[in-house]
Structures are given as structure tokens and as C-alpha cells.
Design a protein that fits this description.
GATase_2_dom (chains A, B, C, D), seven-stranded antiparallel β-sheet, 9 helices, Ntn_hydrolases_N (chains A, B, C, D), EC 3.5.1.118 (chains A, B, C, D), about 25% strand, homotetramer, globular, Glutamine Phosphoribosylpyrophosphate, subunit 1, domain 1, alpha+beta, six-stranded antiparallel β-sheet
Chain lengths: ~300, ~300, ~300, ~300
């Protein structure tokens, strides 16, 4: 992305000052999105040092260091618009089916998510990623005091979409609100409108800082990632340095020769131990990974 | 109950003409409610011929002959207002924890339910019984075309109760609508108002026969059971004959000497093979099992 | 296979006279094996009338009509010797992850299995298919009185293989006995020696008819299927008619034009409703599906 | 117990120098055993600061700080010899059924266990406590290199007991070896013989330090707890100070007035924050909690 790539991760970006474990229906998680050369999921999910699966047991950053309340993986395959989404309610670290899939599925675009619930039911319909048609969505963060605003937000979901809301998380609600507000035509605009709506409804209920989010959303072609919080202290988010830059920094790393220049990872928490590989997404920012060139812009909720 | 006790179950009562397996969010199940002498759950759940647990694998009546999409058991204990509710998503027939509980828990009032989903997610929050405070609720049947009316019904739930709706079933929605409409003060009245609301909203959406239900609800003292459907072809429901009558019919049955005169079972489908033990609850009827004497009345939805 | 293809399934082949539900550790199941053109799993697992997934809820043949105690699917992909094996303990009919995988995975050779346990624990390590290296195995039937012979059979497993036995089923034990007895060099010979061993040990323990099996085993290239029982009343097994023969019988069926001449299905119970599509594997017979031409031979346990 | 009660826990007792996470089939866990006044399970399992359920997410001591690979609780009730045992494979911290049971079940003697697997399958039959008749057993630790010695140990299990071994853990094997070696007549002697056997077989396979264990076993009357390791660096174990001593130390603590003088807890890791409440079980020691007075003795494996 157009930014200050290759910089070291600074200590303040390692902070993750999300809301504390209080109230109901607060999700705090870790996630990863990949776009690039078709690759075995295993290469990203399990093989790196401090992989996402390792993080399910022992994350370094974040409020919750264990993310054992379910997981999900979603991937696109050729000739199918709609991605496969496999989710389960146990910890990722011990899930054999996830490992089997990771070792046998190749995909050019996939999401993976590990969940730490702090009250919402641990059930498949509350696991990320969420899917609607060709779209996938995953989230780390929370709508503050969700139990108080949930009804008002639910009423804002387009009635035709309402029956598709299956679970009880703030994350899925954010997805359906974004779909209601135009996600399929204009992802950044729709997410901005969703964030504006969540903040307005939160403020109406006396919530000072209604929204805390890092979100990833895709239609299988473009991948968008958002980092924002009402308090301006968003949960961590990182994107990988351009592969050609990394190759020149690390000519000996075989893995880098196997993937294309346009391969890109966006993660809650860096994987691996390659110096220069990760760049913090700045506070209040969104990025787009797409065939016509990646972009990064300021993100502001829309009224 | 005051009715025609001790009669044989007639063939037409064995019919169970519920809606077919179509559409989303239709629950078709089997359930059992017990009130009487404190008894080991096992005595009722597992030991009878054609027990509820047997029915989970091979029910005789009903649209679905397998009820393998989760189960639940709820029981009251002394010194606790709120009942214990244990639910899980696998089939009851192979669940070891259910058997352990049944073999070690004694209770004077308990519910058990086995579920056949026809589309709604198989998850703990969709399993019966549902609980709110000291109240428990379970259901067999369906709100027809629930996906079309779900939003309107959700809006009718009292906002303060809305956050407690955890799952996505019509059954839980009926419970929270009944709570909204006065269940804690007047159970039969509240259920009648709920049924009236469901029918009105269904008719507004062009649904001819909006409601099909057998419901059991209790606060730990009184137990109410309802049999009703808009089409007047309700799913089967039976209540057990008075224990003193059964004892005189079957002086040799040891089990009958162990339970008190006021013991009462209400079931979707008869258990055991004791002649004269079961009586069909008539179409459009509700019964109340209570310390001051059981009653049976006509049931009519309230406008 | 070389046999009497294209014949109608006769009523006596529809019988499935396996041992009754008695004793511990008896598995009775349904399975399916496919070899041929790379195909979406969904085409075989879900789309046919009376598909395997339908059979999980309502099988027509067999002792158990519900197969809701877990399932598994195993498939080979290019560039990987070892197959993916995904197994879970709930019923197949409601498993969303299985459906996701089926709708997004293409494979030239796969197994699927649905389980009805009659006492052995319902756990992932007891679900089929079982895998060892590049080999996959699945089974329908039982070692009679398995709890009495289990120890002696366990001692016959090669000590180096012993630690790989993870579950408690007779089916997995048969697999490791076959591996011990040369499966990797000579599948039909090894299975014959395994069957001979099981019969000898059973007879030593006074069991009249020790073995009942239909088995499928593959290394990813050759697929072998066995139908045998000590009592000569084996559980049902069918293989599909040659695709070119079916095409000339049914020139209008589009699906038949999409698959290659060498595509072959072996199933516990016929799928679909295409006349002439299925042929009973005779009692005491095994077949081999392989690139150099399919074969069918008599099967006899080896002393 | 007769020991140096009321002493503070010293820092060296907080060490937990068990074997590292290597190899297969190594269980590392946390557990708790209670004997005394009949008490609501919740009082011990959930209410204390740093409760066992808290430890499932964040243990302070031990090799594994997360114990999310299943849990179990076993309790005795009046009029039943055999205890109830409820076990499940998800993390204890989010399990609603465990909480329901804890809030509604009263027992004078119960076990609770949270598991951290390092390779053995996460399945119900691998969860503690294990039960045989009226006996219950749970374990924290490991048989080193279990996959290498498992077969030899399995052969040492009495053939009549062999079919009862359902899972694949070292812990369950230790239980059935102890039953084989006289557990029902002489628990300390049988456990000593089991430990001697495990060490002998381990040494035969070149394992330097074959055994690491803290074990609790009971028949519903006497409760025995063992702390031992071949390396003399056993995993931590603590017993609670006599209730009358604690009462005089803490006259204001209401909870202490509700339980009887003979109430006793044995735990992997102290609960609560009451000074003087916990005493380390010394290295190579076992204790017996029993109606005729508690005892503590040196423990030595028997040849």
C-alpha cells in the first residue's frame, strides 16, 4: 500500500487498547486476510513462527491473550462466486479439521479468524467470517454496550436482509448494516456510513465511545481493511510489505520466491519473524488490496 | 385434569398434521413435562418403553421421525428459584452427559425436549427449554413462514427483554412475546395474546395458518400446557391419568406405588405401554397442573 | 467391473442382514467411494435423490435407518500423497461445514461415510474414513463380540503401528491389522489375512460368526472394495454401471456427459433413480477400480 | 492432614517443572478435589478468586497456562454408589452446561478437572475424571514417551478390565493399571505398584524419568491424593488448612462458618486469596482424606 512500508513496528502500535471485558456481546479476536498467488492455506495459517493458530493459544497483543472461543476460515476457489466458509466453536489450536483443510486447500484469497468471546454465545453462527452471497466479513473489536443498542441497530437493517442475521454478535450486525448501507456498490462508503450509524445510536444511548473495530471485507476480487475506533485508540492492524521489497531485503528466503509481487497479508498481529515485513495501518485508516494497485486512505465515519 | 381420563388414545389423536418440512426456521420436536413426587430424571427419560430418548431416534408420530438436532433438560431444585437448564446440540440418544445427569438428579418438576430442526441453526441457543428468571418454556410446532414475520415479531418484544433473545427460533420468540404480554402474571392470558399476535402478523403477511404449537411453560410451581393450531389440526399432546386411578387399574405396577397422587406427565407422544395411562389433550385446549388441583380449559387466541 | 452390469437391483440384494444392535462397539453405517473425473463432492454427496446425506437421516436398507453418530469425508488432491480427512461427531444432515466443503472441493477420488454407533463412543477418532500415510479405509459392519476379542486383536497389531490406533472401533482395528498384514503391498491379500485372523480369534472366543464387513480401501490410485461376512449374509454393496453403458441407456442425462468413462461409484445403498445404474456386488466378492481396468474376484479369508 | 499446616506457599512450590510439551499423548492439566459438608459445586468451582474455571483460561503455575482442551466434573449423591461424571471437549470457561450444573448440584465429594492436551485427541473419553464402578480418578502430569510404552502398559492391564479402556490417554491407562494392581483393596499400595510398573517399563525403553504425576482417586468415602515424579520435581499440589484453624485466623470470613471442620480441598494450584489457607503437599507424598482422620505419608513406587 502507499504508506511508509518496511518500517519496524513501533511499541505504541503494539498496544491494543480496546474496551475491557465487560458487558455482554463483546467480541475480541485475531484475524488474517490473504490475497495473492494461489497458496496452500497451511503456508500462512500454521507454518509461520507465531502463526495465527499459535495466537489462538497465546496472543502477544490485545486484551485477550487466549482466543479459544471458535474460529473460521473462508476461501475462494475458481469457478465459484461464493466463498467456502468453515467455522467451528472449539479452539483453533486443537482442531484437526482446520488443519486438514489448511493442508489440502489452495486459494488466491482467504480469511481466517480466531475468536475470544466475552459473553456472546459460543456458537457457529457467531463465528467469523460471515458471508452473504459473494461477500465475506470479519471483525476484531466491539460495539460498546451492544446489548443496549442492539435493538435499534437491528431495526436499521434492511427488512429483506433481516432474516439472514443468524447469530447474536455485534460483528455480524455491522456486516448487515454495511450491506444495508451499500456495501456491494461502495465498500468504504458503506462502512463509513455503518460506523456513523453505530456512533449516532451509541451516543443516543449515552455511550461515549461506541465503536472499536478492525474489519476486513471482500467480494473475492477487492479486499478492504479498516482500522478505526471512536476513542482513536484502535486495536492493532498490520499489512505486509511489498513482496519485491522483501525479496531484496531477504534474498535467501525461499518462500518469498514462490509468491507473486502482488501478494498481500493483513493481520491483527504480525506473523513470522522477518524484519521489515510488517507495517502498522495508521489509526483511522482503510486500505484496499486490488488488481489495479493497492491504496490506503483516511477513514472517517459518515454522518 | 378434569376431562375424560383413562380413555384409550384414539387413532385420530395419533395424527400429527403439522406443516411440512419447508421454509426456514421451522422447529418440529418432542417434549415431556413432569410434575409430582421428586423423582430421578432417569425414571421418566430413559426407563419407560418408547421413552423420550428412544423417540429421539425413532418417534412414531409426527412429521419428523428423527429428532437428532439437539436436546435440553431443565429441572428445579430446592432452595433455587431458577431452574438448571442443560442443552446440547448433538442427538440425545448418544449423549453421555444427559444420561449421567438423568441418573443422578432428582427433581419435583422438570422439562425435557428433543429437537428436529428444518433449517434453523443447530446451536445451543436454539435448544429448548428456554429460561428467563424462574420461568421455563418449550415448544413443538412452528410459526409458519417465520422468516417473513420474524422482524415484525421481534419488534413486538419489549425492548428491555430484547437483549435476552439469544437464538433464532420461532419458539424462543414466542416465549419472549409471551413474557412481553404478561406471562409472569397470567400465563394462559399471555399465551393467548401471543397466539393472537402471531396470527395477526401472519395474516398481514398473507400466511393462511400462522401458528402450530404445543407449548409447556412453568414458573416452578404451576405447569401450563397448550395445544393449538390456526388450522385446528394441532400436533399431538397427551397427559397422564391420575396416579390413583392408574394404581387401581394396575395394582401390580411397582412404579405407581412410588409416586404421589398428584404426579403428572404431559408428553408429545405417550411413553411406556400401560393401558389407560394416557389421554389426548383436545384440540384448542390448555391445562394447568398445580397444587390447588389440575384444570383443563378451552384455548382461544386473544385479539 | 467384470460382472453382470446393468441389471436391476433384486429385492434380495436390498436385504441387509447384519448382526442386530447388541453388545458394545458395533458399527453399522453407510458409505460411498468415488473414483473418476475430478468432480465437485457436492455432485455425489448432496445432489442425487436419496443421497448419502439423505441416508444419514433416513436410510432404506440396513439395520439402522438413522446414521447420525458422526461422519467423515476424505479426498485426494493433486500434489499431495496423503488425503484430506474431515470428520465430525454430529449428524451429517445438519453439518454446515460438510456442505461447505462439498460445494467447494473438487477431487478425482474420495470417500464419504456416515456412522451409526451402537455403543462405541461418538468421537472424532471413531469416525471413518481412517487414514495412515497415503491410505484411507472405511467400513460398514462389525466384528461380533468385539469387546471380547479386542485385546487379542490389539496384540496382533504390529508394535510400530500400535501407537497410531487412536480410537476404539473394530473398524480402525481392522485397518491396522490389514496394515500389519501387508496392506501396502497387496491389499486383497492383506484384507483376506485380516479377515482370517478375525475369524480365528473370534472362533477361539466361541463366536460363531465373527465378521461382517463391507470395506473400502485406497492408496489414492487403486480403490478396492470388499463384501464379506462369516455368515454369508453380508451387508449390501453396489457398484455403478460403466458410464458409457449408462450414457447409451440415458442419452438425455446431462450429468453422464460430464464424467469420464472410467468414473465409478461404490456404495452401501444406491443413490439417485437412474434405471440400470447399480449392480449388487455378490456375496464374498471384492472389486478393484484402477487405471489398468476394473476387476472383480471372489473373496475368501486367508488362514 | 498431619503436616506443617497454615504455612505460606513458598516460591519454590510455585514452580512446576514437569516435562516440556514434546512427544505425543502428554496431558498437563489442573484439578481440584473436595470432601466435606455437602456444598454447591459453584462455591468452589466458580466463586473463589482465581477459581479453577479462571485457571482454564489463565493458570499461573505450570507448563501450560491455558487449559482449554476439555474438562470434567464428577460428584457423588446420596443413595448412589457410582458418581455422576460430566465431561466435555470445549474449554471450561465458556461452557454453559458446566455452570448450570455447578449452580444446581450439591455434593459432599466431588472432582473437577481442566485439560491441556499436547497431542492426544481432544475427545470426551480422554477427559478426566475417569470412572470405574464407584471409583473416580484424575491426573495431572504425564507418562514420558507414552507412545513408546503404551503397548507394553496396555498388555499389563487385566484382560477383564481391558475393554473398559475407552480413550487414549496415559492418565486413563494409569487408572486401569492401578485397578489391575489392587486399587479397590489398597489404594496407596496399588498406586505405588502402578508407579513402579510405569517406571520399570519406561526404563526398559530407555526413558530416564518415566513418570510425572499428581493423582486424585476416591471411592466416594476416602479420598487419596498423590504427588510424585521420577525426577523428584513433581507438579504442584496443595491441600487446604483445617477449617477450624482457618476460622480462628479469619473470624470474619462467612464462608468458613458454613462448612464443617472436616472439609478439605486438594488442588493443583491455590484458589482464593485467604492467607494461610494452603499447604504444599511435599515431593513424594500422598495424603488420605477420610472420616477417621486425615493422614499424610511418604510415597515410593513399589517394585
Amino acid at each position: 500500500m502507499k504508506g511508509t512500508e518496511g518500517t519496524t513496528v513501533r511499541e505504541e502500535d503494539r498496544r491494543d487498547d480496546g474496551p475491557r471485558r465487560t458487558g455482554k456481546a463483546v467480541d475480541m479476536c485475531r484475524w488474517l486476510a490473504y490475497s495473492g498467488t494461489p497458496i496452500l492455506l497451511d503456508s500462512i495459517l500454521y507454518r509461520p513462527v507465531h502463526s495465527l493458530i499459535d495466537q489462538s493459544l497465546h496472543a502477544k497483543m490485545g486484551v485477550e491473550t487466549t482466543n479459544g472461543d471458535g474460529f473460521g476460515v473462508g476461501w475462494y476457489v475458481p469457478d465459484k462466486d461464493s466463498p467456502a466458509v468453515v467455522r467451528d466453536i472449539g479452539p483453533a489450536w486443537s482442531d484437526r479439521n482446520l488443519r486438514e483443510i489448511a493442508e489440502h486447500v489452495v486459494s488466491p484469497l482467504f480469511f481466517a479468524h480466531i475468536r475470544a468471546s466475552t459473553g456472546t454465545a459460543v456458537q457457529q453462527t457467531n463465528c467469523h467470517p460471515f458471508r452473504h452471497g459473494r461477500w465475506m466479513w470479519m471483525h476484531n473489536g466491539a460495539i460498546a454496550e451492544f446489548h443496549r443498542v442492539r435493538r435499534d441497530l437491528a431495526l436499521s437493517v434492511e427488512p429483506g436482509l433481516f432474516p439472514y442475521v443468524e447469530g447474536s454478535t455485534d460483528s455480524e450486525m455491522m456486516f448487515y448494516l454495511s450491506l444495508t448501507l451499500g456495501l456491494e456498490e461502495d465498500p468504504p462508503g458503506a462502512v463509513a456510513r455503518m460506523a456513523g450509524l453505530v456512533e449516532r445510536v451509541g451516543h443516543e444511548h449515552g455511550v461515549e465511545f461506541p465503536l472499536q473495530m478492525t474489519v476486513s471485507v471482500t467480494d473475492g476480487v477487492r479486499l478492504c481493511a479498516f482500522r478505526y475506533s471512536s476513542q482513536k485508540r484502535s486495536r492493532s492492524l498490520f499489512y505486509s510489505t511489498r513482496v519485491d521489497t522483501l525479496r531484496s531485503l531477504h534474498p535467501d528466503v525461499a518462500f518469498l520466491r514462490e509468491i507473486s509481487d502482488d501478494a498481500r497479508l493483513i493481520v491483527s498481529e504480525p506473523l513470522g519473524d522477518l524484519p521489515g515485513a510488517w507495517n502498522a495501518v495508521p489509526e483511522g485508516t482503510y486500505g484496499v488490496v486490488q488488481p489495479e494497485g493497492d491504496e490506503m486512505h483516511a477513514f472517517e465515519p459518515a454522518a
